[in-house]
């Protein structure tokens, strides 16, 4: 019975991973990838990013089916695709399909040409993702919602509109989390002055 329960839990975690932007379970509470109120993107851009993820995911399923296992994450119209493709042609086609979605400005193609990842690997990625996000929340010198965390096969991809200082600090934090094989910075770097302009003023 215990083994069945663990299997079902792993399956549920993997299902969340396949949505691209999986929610995180931290301390028993559900925490989304970003919080609208403190997000550094405009509300319109946040909506565009969600639409891009849905449209790109749909195109990949329609055109490539189970030949690929690809997760789509969009931040400020820059799209990160991760996962696996069985050959280079499918990997390139995935990039072309995603790049053709309306409002996409750039595609970061981090899809590996290899066999599809296992259920265990995907579940482990979600655990790592939760740990990285939790560490960012605990860091008092960072705004955790400024960071978008994606994990694929133990590799952590960090996205967000952040300063160089914030990028370095978040990278340092992610590298210290157990199970992390590599940290890939996919940030949009902004100046400290720009950060001051977009940060809501305290009442």
Automatic annotation (TrEMBL):
Q: What is this protein called?
A: BON domain-containing protein
Asked whether the UniProt record includes Signal among its keywords, one would answer: yes
Q: Which UniProt keywords apply?
A: Signal
> Which segments constitute the BON domain?
48-115, 124-191
InterPro entries registered for this protein in UniProt: BON_dom, Lipoprotein_DolP, Transpt-assoc_nodulatn_dom_bac
């Amino acid at each position: 019975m215990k083994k069945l329960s663990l299997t079902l839990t792993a399956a549920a975690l993997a299902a969340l991973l396949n949505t691209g932007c999986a929610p995180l379970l931290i301390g028993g509470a559900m925490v989304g990838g970003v919080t609208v109120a403190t997000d550094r993107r405009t509300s319109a851009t946040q909506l565009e990013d969600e639409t891009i993820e849905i449209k790109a995911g749909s195109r990949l399923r329609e055109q490539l089916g189970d030949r690929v296992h690809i997760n789509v994450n969009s931040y400020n119209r820059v799209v990160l695709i991760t996962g696996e493709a069985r050959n280079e042609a499918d990997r390139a086609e995935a990039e072309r399909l995603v790049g053709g979605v309306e409002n996409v400005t750039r595609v970061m193609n981090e899809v590996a040409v290899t066999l599809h990842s296992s259920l265990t690997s995907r579940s482990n990625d979600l655990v790592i993702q939760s740990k990285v996000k939790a560490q960012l929340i605990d860091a008092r010198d960072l705004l955790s919602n400024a960071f978008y965390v994606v994990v694929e096969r133990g590799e952590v991809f960090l996205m967000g509109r952040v300063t160089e200082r914030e990028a370095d600090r978040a990278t340092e934090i992610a590298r210290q989390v157990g199970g992390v094989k590599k940290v890939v910075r996919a940030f949009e770097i902004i100046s400290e002055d720009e950060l001051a302009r977009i940060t809501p003023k305290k009442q």
